[in-house]
Design goal:
The protein is an alpha/beta fold. The protein has three domains: about 90 residues, Winged helix-like DNA-binding domain superfamily/Winged helix DNA-binding domain (Arc Repressor Mutant, subunit A, Orthogonal Bundle), CATH 1.10.10.10; about 110 residues, no CATH class; about 250 residues, Aspartate Aminotransferase, domain 2 (3-Layer(aba) Sandwich). Helices cover about 40% and strands about 15% of the residues. Strand 5, helix 9 and strand 6 form a beta-alpha-beta unit.
């Protein structure tokens, strides 16, 4: 059991319960306590109530919901019997997951298609390289390589030309930056791991969004950090279904109550939900973190991917632009805008911390490959506007294709349409994402199940669908999803005779 609990007030739980839509068979002619228990169970498995959240006392919740206390008490007892609630006399009741519930696993590895193109990998959200710009940039980088090859090739802080390019891009986005504030890393994950190793000790609390990026959650677990999940608030979206919204009040309460060492956030086209956090809410987060003495680690790997934002609408400024102190550490990446195989990331921090990080990395990673850095520097220069427009157009086309195909072939599934990012966060109408992923392994489509993106095994009824597949393949891809969903719902798996048809590229 966690040593710090999120406490859910009766009005807050009542608002959440109003968004917990159970399937019709589950609500028809059911006693009120069964409906209430089912709604709370759904909120826990979908991550909207974090595991370990302290629920209101029975009498208080009964008053808020205008139900009898007996109804609430029986619902709580049902949840305890099913393993979704733990109680202790004098301490209250808090949410849980049953023994044997699937824990979050490691992120999926890409599976290449066979020669007939029978396998579609929807587990990885990374774009292909933008051509012809990538090939031209690589050729120019190779021409420069002999100059760097005359030395030892070790650049713990990064090749100067790339540090200058990254600093210039931050300045263009409204955050004045100098090269000595930039450390080049081997991918964003290299930067995130390095920052965690230097700033987070074993047993330190780290506040994280729920859901959040699967790789980082697993890295924090392995480092021995204690994760404190902060769920999104859910408000009705354009289609009437619940859409995730940044919950500034919850963040303030968690930072004040848990006083975490670090707060890890993805404010720009969040992975996996696609949510974009407004500038005023960023200020509120910074004020609460400052009061709690917490460092804010900002993941900006998707910050340039506003494919649904009109050019006339300014994006929120980087979080670090709103607080120039050393309180904010930012990690970015070339992998989500340029190419996943270009293993280039960076950390933006105070010069003193950059030097400290560089000194620490030499014991595990002397430096990032020079050729990759030179290619990235070329792409972040003059070609960047055209490259960015090309990549955003691809993402936009794929998003619109999924928005058309999913309701047609899987009408019970739902998702909030984001304005940017690399993925759709899809609710599978009660179907286990883990079961869907298992069925997909045999049905020609690999799926990232939702519980990988929860800090505590939640979000079982979600999957993440990347927008990095070609738009032309989307109808066939959704067809495969529909087929494996039908098989997973029936409790079976696709066998070797159920071969998927090749995708039309």
């Amino acid at each position: 059991m966690a040593d710090w609990h999120t406490t859910v007030t009766p009005p807050a739980l009542a608002r959440l319960l109003a968004t917990a839509r159970l399937p019709e068979p589950a609500t028809a002619r059911r006693p009120a306590y069964r409906t209430l228990a089912g709604q709370i169970r759904l909120l826990v498995t979908e991550g909207r109530l974090p595991v370990g959240a302290r629920l209101p006392a029975e009498r208080e919740l009964a008053t808020a919901l205008e139900l009898s206390r007996t109804t609430v008490a029986t619902a709580y007892e049902t949840l305890r019997g099913d393993g979704y609630l733990h109680s202790r006399r004098g301490a209250g009741s808090w949410t849980a997951l049953p023994e044997g519930a699937p824990p979050p696993g490691d992120a999926l590895h890409p599976v290449p298609p066979d020669e007939q193109g029978r396998t579609l990998d929807l587990g990885v959200a990374a774009p292909p390289a933008p051509q012809p710009w990538f090939g031209a940039a690589a050729a120019r980088a190779v021409e420069q390589l002999p100059y760097y090859a005359s030395g030892h090739g070790h650049y713990p802080t990064g090749v100067p030309v790339l540090r200058e390019a990254v600093a210039r891009r931050y300045t263009e986005r409204g955050l004045a930056t100098t090269p000595d504030q930039i450390l080049i890393t081997t991918g964003a994950m290299g930067g995130l791991h390095l920052v965690q190793r230097v700033l987070v000790g074993r047993g330190d609390r780290v506040a994280v969004e729920a859901p959040s990026y699967a790789h980082t959650l697993q890295a924090l677990r392995l480092s021995g950090a204690r994760l404190v999940p902060v769920p999104f608030a859910y408000r009705p979206g354009p289609d009437g279904g619940p859409a995730p919204r940044w919950d500034a009040e919850e963040w303030q309460r968690v930072l004040r109550g848990a006083a975490p060492r670090l707060a890890y956030v993805i404010p720009d086209f969040h992975n996996p939900t696609g949510a974009l956090i407004g500038e005023e809410q960023r200020r509120e987060l910074l004020a609460a973190a400052r009061a709690a003495g917490s460092i804010v680690l900002v993941d900006e790997t998707t910050a340039e991917l506003g494919w649904g934002v009109p050019e006339s609408v300014p994006l929120p400024r980087p979080v670090a632009a709103l607080d120039r102190s050393a309180q904010v550490v930012t990690v970015g990446s070339a992998g989500k805008l340029l190419w996943g195989g270009l293993r280039i990331g960076w950390v933006r921090a105070a010069p003193a911390l950059v030097r400290r990080l560089a000194g620490e990395r030499v014991y595990s990673d002397v430096g990032t490959p020079v050729l990759d850095q030179l290619i990235a520097a070329e792409l972040l220069g003059e070609p960047l506007p055209a490259v960015r427009a090309h990549q955003l157009a691809r993402l936009r086309a794929t998003a619109h294709a999924f928005a058309a195909a999913l309701p047609e072939q899987l009408p019970d599934w739902s998702f909030p349409m984001p304005t940017g990012g690399l993925a759709l966060w899809v609710s599978t109408a009660g179907l286990s994402g883990a079961a869907l992923a298992q069925a997909g392994e045999h049905g020609g489509v690999r799926v990232a199940s939702g519980n990988r993106f929860g800090s505590d095994g939640a979000f079982e009824h979600h999957i993440r669908i990347p927008l990095t597949v070609p738009a032309a393949t989307v109808p066939a891809a959704v067809g495969r999803l529909a087929a494996v969903a039908a098989r997973a719902t029936a409790g079976g798996r696709l066998g070797p005779t159920d071969e998927a048809q090749p995708l039309a590229v």
